[in-house]
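ARCHIVE CARD
Drawer: 12
Card no.: 0347
Subject: one protein chain, sequence and derived structure
Cross-reference: see card 0346
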Amino acid sequence: MKKITAVLVAIIMVFSVPSVAFATEDVEQTSVVSEENNQSSEGNIPPSEETTPPTEEPDAPEVGEESSSNDGVVATLSLCSAIYVWPVSGHTWIYVHNNSDEPITVGHYEVPVGQGVSVGVFSFSVDDGWGIYYNIEAYKENTKNRMDKVWSKSEELDADELETLHNRLLNYPNYWGFGGNCATFAFSMWNSVTHDGYFSLLIPAITQFMIMVSGGQKGVLEMYCPPREHVYRLKGNGENAYLTGVSDYTAN
């Protein structure tokens, strides 16, 4: 009985398959005819009416264009520290980078667009007299490949803050002493615009530690490397002071 039932099912399937195939073919033919009709009816539609034109989007800002969040920023001030022989041999200085579209004046030095200047106080390590120098750090740290060891923290300055820093530099005494070393100078410049309240200690390692714990980072600062002839010593004091070239011993 089971065999008979299986035979009957097989016979039914044999006869039903062609009808299904023919039905499928009819559907496909009908679909082709329908597509041809649609194509013939749409063939007279102008291309401009076939699709909706894309909505125009506002132009994206060009590469290098500053956003409105940077409006008012003319420079970046960085407080820097490096240790050469731990813990007693090191240096602290400031670096100012020009972020504006015109030259800026930092103390007695005019900084071109896209460049920067370092300013620090020196004593035994120079051969042209103790006091304030421009671009020694920017030149030395770059040419000696020591930028990855520099600790720094930075602050953006508007025009008023830059003017405050500029005036502070003009009026700072041009000397180095145990009561006013490189850290005293750098902290004074930094405090004049940030009001952080740094105070100087004579040991460079402690000075660097103060920068570290207040948010400083190592190896993140990029200082513009000036040409050798742009390394200067400040002579005189106040607005009547002027810059002069330095010896190779001092620069190198």
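Annotation on reverse: Helices lie at 2-42, 47-50, 136-143, 159-171, 182-194, 204-213, 248-251. The chain is about 35% helix and 20% strand.
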